[in-house]
From TrEMBL:
<dbReference type="Pfam" id="PF02545">
    <property type="entry name" value="Maf"/>
</dbReference>
<dbReference type="InterPro" id="IPR029001">
    <property type="entry name" value="ITPase-like_fam"/>
</dbReference>
<dbReference type="InterPro" id="IPR003697">
    <property type="entry name" value="Maf-like"/>
</dbReference>
<protein>
    <recommendedName>
        <fullName>Maf-like protein</fullName>
    </recommendedName>
</protein>
<dbReference type="GO" id="GO:0047429">
    <property type="term" value="F:nucleoside triphosphate diphosphatase activity"/>
</dbReference>
<keyword id="KW-0378">Hydrolase</keyword>
Length: 213
């Protein structure tokens, strides 16, 4: 059973919308004991990371596009929830300052694993929260979470077997830390849930601020 914290009761009285089709982000919000709806964003799934000064700027802006598109649509479409809080997020894997998005095919997925094998990379999640204050004003808060992940050395047989499992293809960086790829992870520094797709602790602290001000 979810915790019966007073702040969670306040949050459950809000109409929260997750601007993402990611089943992993949905599971994370559910594990937090939140009630929410899912409205899949129509914003572009991928932006051009090379157009940004930093990778943090890139994930923050991509998350903002998703959150704003869903918030605006919820305001205009009577068939969608009248959202009090919209949460948008974007997660990327970065190796040598190169953004590894979702793999296009088997060859691309294998190339990503080869880059990550025996190396440390980092995962960034940009989170954008657009919300209505008690006075009805629309406000926004944002943050970017970083987690360092080190992989052990992977041989060709292991990498091929993992790619053939099909798990890499809907995941940034071509792996899911919560799935079979968990056995590849030698160490992690930072929020585990950030690598899954949504930094649970930081998100909770921001939501507390929203409902408690």
């Amino acid at each position: 059973m979810p915790l019966e914290l007073p702040v969670l009761k306040l949050l459950r009285n809000k109409t929260i919308v997750l601007a993402s089709a990611s089943p992993r982000r949905r599971e994370i919000l559910e594990s937090m004991g939140l009630k929410f709806s899912v409205v899949t964003t129509l914003a572009p799934d991928e932006n051009d990371p090379t157009a940004y000064k930093t990778r943090a700027d890139y994930v923050a802006d991509t998350a903002l596009m998703k959150a704003k598109e869903v918030f605006d649509r919820c305001e205009e479409d009577p068939l969608l929830p009248n959202a009090d809080i919209v949460i948008g997020a974007d997660t990327v894997v970065v190796k040598d300052e190169h953004v590894l998005e979702k793999p296009r095919d088997k060859k691309h997925a294998l190339s990503m694993l080869e880059q990550l094998s025996g190396q440390t990379h980092y995962v960034l999640t940009g989170v954008q929260i657009i919300y209505k204050t008690k006075e009805g004003k629309v406000e926004r808060c944002q943050f970017v979470e970083k987690t360092d992940v080190k992989f052990s050395e992977l041989d060709a047989e292991t990498m091929n077997a993992y790619v053939d499992s099909g798990e890499p293809f809907d995941k940034a960086g071509g792996y899911g830390i919560q799935g079979d790829a968990s056995i590849f992870v030698e160490s992690i520094h930072g929020d585990y849930w950030n690598v899954v797709g949504l930094p649970k602790n930081h998100l909770f602290k921001e939501l507390v601020k929203i409902v408690c001000v």
